[in-house]
Amino acid sequence: MSTQHQKSDKPPLQHSLADEVANKIDTLIAQGTLSPGQLLPSERRLTEKLGTSRTVVREAIRTLRARGIIETTPGRGSYVRKLKDDVSHAPFMNFVAEHPKLLYDLLDLRSLIEPQAARQAAENGTTGDFNMITYRYRQLAGEFGKDLWLNPKFEYAFHFSVWQASHNTVLVHTLQSLSDPQFGHEYHVLQRLPQSGHHRELAQQYCASLYDAVMTRRPQDAANTVIQYFINILETLRVLSDGDTASSESDRTMQCGRAFPNASAQIR
């Protein structure tokens, strides 16, 4: 019996070590050190960093791949898997983007979350994070003299770099799922207004203020900048939503009148 017990004990030892290494890599992902879409370090680098053998690292990567946390592309290496599907073209999100009331609700929810991401970016951002934020901001600032409504990808990239600097994986993925339809669609709604140029200037000022607050590590100012921007944008969308609602109700009344032309006379 003791022989059987010894045999059953041997295999789990190496498996346990691979699991331990897999959990260490998993922790780096959860902490935001390794971001979704980022290429994992080479096996040699991981071996040196984690103090183990290449055999164990390979087993750990297989474990993470089986968990769905990473994916491997032949000839390119292993990447941190994106933890959400691309919802930018999902029917519901496109539906939200085309209706100011639903867009208002979506941004209202986001306004409760994004200030915390900005605050944590100012608190937790590393030199590497700030370099990326600066790079994305300069891309965006180059568009300030142009029609920003037509090129929203730079604004999204800038905000995404701020979210990543928070090193809060849950916040990053939540904001991604809430904001993909907003960029490119929020502005499409706002440019329907006579004062669309004013809103474009506000958006530019907002990005400049957010960049300054994060880069100078002023967490409260960063959060307040986001809060104030959402107050402005939500008020605009509320007015637009109210107008669309009134227009829709008027349209429904006219349609009902055409469908039942004698209804009012019968009621009287």
Automatic annotation (TrEMBL):
Keyword Oxidoreductase found: no
Pfam families to which the protein is assigned, alphabetical: FCD (PF07729), GntR (PF00392)
Region ranges (Disordered): 245-268
SUPFAM superfamilies given in the database record: GntR ligand-binding domain-like, Winged helix' DNA-binding domain
Alphabetic keyword roster: DNA-binding, Transcription, Transcription regulation
GO molecular function, one term: DNA binding
Ranges for domain HTH gntR-type: 15-83
Source organism superkingdom: Bacteria
Name of the protein: Transcriptional regulator
Native source organism of the sequence: Paraburkholderia caribensis MBA4
